[in-house]
Amino acid sequence: MPVKVGDTAPDFSLPAQNGETVNLRDFRGKSAVVLYFYPKDDTPGCTAESCAFRDRYEVFKNAGAEVIGVSGDSNQSHQQFAAKYNLPFILLSDKGDKVRKEYGATAAFGLLPGRVTYVIDQQGIVQYVFDSMFNFQGHVDEALKKLQQLQAV
């Protein structure tokens, strides 16, 4: 079953583009997490989405959140993608799409990698899910709107 609002975000450990292992649980009690699953590095839609997150990264940080992108691409691909577009946030390599499947971030009959963004609060609870293959900017705008609502509470 897909992860939904109110669920505890499933923990995972995945390699980042810098070679370090990132554990979702390490952010608990420290910052919210905007976890976005995207299909593939350096494709038009994924580049547009990632650059939109890049352009608002400081706003996300000021809202108390870390941005983390996840795809099935290799660490080397992530390194090249991050360098080419000056992406300041973490990109994780989910070989075999194990974590993507655990979150239910699939599209087109569960066969294609989906484009889904999760806003996870400091306690590890999913507060918002945005699922759209083609509204690249919406992933950024909606996640930021939700974070700002959470800050205001």
Description:
The protein has a single domain, classed as Glutaredoxin. It has five helices and nine strands. The chain has helices at residues 44-55, 57-62, 75-85, 98-103, 136-152, and strands at 13-15, 21-23, 32-37, 65-71, 90-93, 106-107, 112-113, 116-120, 126-131. The strands form three sheets. The chain has a five-stranded mixed β-sheet. Helix 1 runs parallel beside helix 5. It is globular and about 40 Å long. Monomer. One of its GO terms (molecular function) is thioredoxin peroxidase activity.
Fold topology:
Layout: E1 13-15, E2 21-23, E3 32-37, H1 44-55, H2 57-62, E4 65-71, H3 75-85, E5 90-93, H4 98-103, E6 106-107, E7 112-113, E8 116-120, E9 126-131, H5 136-152
Parallel strand pairs: 3-4, 4-5
Antiparallel strand pairs: 1-2, 3-8, 6-7, 8-9
Helix pairs in contact: 1-5
Element-by-element helix/strand order: EEEHHEHEHEEEEH
Structural class: alpha/beta
CATH topology: Glutaredoxin
Taken from the alpha-carbon principal axes, the silhouette is: globular
Number of self-contained structural domains: 1
Quick overview of this protein structure:
This protein is α/β, with parallel strands linked by helices and 153 residues long. It is 34% helix and 25% strand. It has helices at 44-55, 57-62, 75-85, 98-103, 136-152, and strands at 13-15, 21-23, 32-37, 65-71, 90-93, 106-107, 112-113, 116-120, 126-131.
